Amino acid sequence: MSKKYVLAVPNFSEGQRSDVVNAVVDAVKQVESVKVVAVEPEHNFNRTVLTFIVDPKHCEEAMLKMAEAVYKDVNMEVQKGDHPRIGALDTFPVFPLQNVTIEETQELAEKLGVSLFEHFKVPIYFSGLNARTEYKKSNINIRRGQYEGLKALLEDKNHPDYGTRKPDLSVDGKLDAKMGACTVTADYEGLVAYNVFVESEDVSIAKEIAKLVKSKEHGWLSIKSVGFKDEGKPGTAVSMNVYNCAETPLVMLCDWVNKEAQLRGTKVIGTELVGPLHLKYVEAAAKEFGYEFNGRDYDELVKVLEENMGLIDFDAAQIIEYHLQPVTP
């Protein structure tokens, strides 16, 4: 029988203390069937995104070991960072990856949320496909006000928004002072983080293009984007979170940004994929340049994208399916 895998992409509120980050990752690695795809600590955000593949039957154990390590060293009463968050283990989303249906993934997310609450008494929000209300489908809504604002709101059960904002599972309807809360969800797949660099050092151009690409009139509502100067990288960046890479393929977006850049007297000089993504999106990009991936030569696949898209700092290990290859003895 073919192996089953889900993809887990939890986010925890520590990105500055490497010893804590390493302890959390090591705890997850101890679990059978876990394959770590990426560990992405971000100092200014003071959070880390951990991406790993795991057999669904081992996912609960991996989550509990991770939570134990996080709750040991992360205290929301003193944690500070630039990224919105409501808890020490802030989110735990799972996605179907191999031989697992979305319905099975939703059931798994339900089990994970209940287990996390039962073991640690941490308040739980269910979001995405597991959301109890329309409002809670969006993690942006759940995080509104962040830990500090949400904690204060839930202290007052007479607050007009209390019913809307209270956790789905909790001891007393409040956030835990130290742990905060955790959002658990299942969905079809996560976002692709994609930067397109334009030659001009005038960041206002990148910001203008970023505003257009996410607009209903000129671009796509499935994209969130900003323009900024990424120190150490060429030019300025149009940075996009692409939530539907099938609808908005990488090459098409690059061409679109280049067209808008040329209208403003500049051009695209490179691209960057940040973090993990699915093989099908990289493969589709390579096909635009006449390359058919043979299922084995990941290095050649990356080379095609480097030469034709100006892709920088990309490693084949960022491709999620790369980690599903049979281990050669």
TrEMBL record:
Where in this chain does the record put each Formiminotransferase N-terminal subdomain domain?
A: 4-188
| Signal sequence range | none
Instruction: Report the domain of life of the source organism.
Output: Bacteria
Q: What is its EC number?
A: 2.1.2.5
Keywords on record? Transferase
Residues in Formiminotransferase C-terminal subdomain domain copies: 190-323
Name of a matching Pfam family: FTCD
User: Which GO molecular function, any one, fits this protein according to its record?
Assistant: glutamate formimidoyltransferase activity
* Gene3D superfamilies hit by this protein: Formiminotransferase, C-terminal subdomain, Formiminotransferase, N-terminal subdomain
Q: Which InterPro entries match?
A: Formiminotransferase_C (IPR013802), Formiminotransferase_C_sf (IPR037070), Formiminotransferase_N (IPR012886), Formiminotransferase_N_sf (IPR037064), FormiminoTrfase_cat_dom_sf (IPR022384), FTCD (IPR051623)
Q: From the UniProt record, list the coiled-coil ranges.
A: none
- Which PANTHER family does this UniProt record tie to the protein? FORMIMINOTRANSFERASE-CYCLODEAMINASE
Instruction: Spell out the protein name for this chain.
Output: glutamate formimidoyltransferase
Q: Which organism is it from?
A: Neobacillus notoginsengisoli
